[in-house]
Amino acid sequence: MQDYLVKTLLGFFVMTITTSIVTSNSLDFLRALAQEADEEQAVFDAVEQTNSISDFNIKYPPTNKKNKDWVKVKLSGSTHSHVLSKGQNYELKCMADGGPAPQIYWIRGGDIERQIDDLKRPNSVYDDFTSSEIGPAKIESKYIIDCASKNDEGPIYCVAISGDKVEWDSTIILVNDNSTRNLPCGTRRLPVITNHASTVLALQGTSVVLPCVAVGKPKPFILWETAEGNRITNYIFNPRYKVLPTGDLLIDSLEWNDMNGYTCIARSNLGEDRASTFIYPVQRDDGR
């Protein structure tokens, strides 16, 4: 019964949007959903809810539009503090939604405003992924603590930057020296994907880079597959697809048919970790 209700509601949702677009200009429809920054966020939320909207092709305003940047950030399971045992391995997870695609940074220590200003300086790494051609995206990042010690104690901030917008969430790490769980520190660690985009909206005709960063001991190597399980091999799977030396996936000249899920696999002789990205190619509204 629940499955029936879900399918019925989803069908109604898609049908309503499709009808609205058919009966009016698609850009006007998006503007009716919300104004300025909320326009992007409404479209992003719709795609995020279904990850399967293929019955209509959303038009996106040209890149010189004056929509405001927006970003939201949240530490998963965030509490005031996390108390760790000495030697414990631990992961903090942070999620950021934003338009344009946000970047996540982990900052420790005080004077957070100064550290954020340093990140936003021209020619810094901050500029690499953020682009006016890339629409809203959801980015997920993990902060890895290996063999916790007193050096790991203190406040830690997850900072998300999207255009001119900056938001952060924070917690405090405490390490209990007197814990009975005094864990040994190992030299080997399973692969963990520490940064990827779970959902991306990007303009058709542009080049898009899907990030995938992983850590592990030994260092894992990175593979990419489609949702159907097809391995993406440079120049063989599709000449527009390339796995970069960094492990990121480049899709050149994005097309409508590229809408799909893409899975990053970080693998070593100890095991593997997987993270998927859903990409939605958005139709331009400037005739290009």
From TrEMBL:
InterPro entries given in the database record: Ig-like_dom, Ig-like_dom_sf, Ig-like_fold, Ig_sub, Ig_sub2
Pfam family name, one: Ig_3
GO molecular function, a single term: cell-cell adhesion mediator activity
Coiled-coil ranges per UniProt: none
GO biological process, one term: homophilic cell adhesion via plasma membrane adhesion molecules
Record-level GO cellular component terms: axon; plasma membrane
Alphabetical UniProt keywords: Immunoglobulin domain
Domain Ig-like: 61-160, 191-280
Protein name per Swiss-Prot or TrEMBL: Ig-like domain-containing protein
Organism: Aphidius gifuensis (Parasitoid wasp)
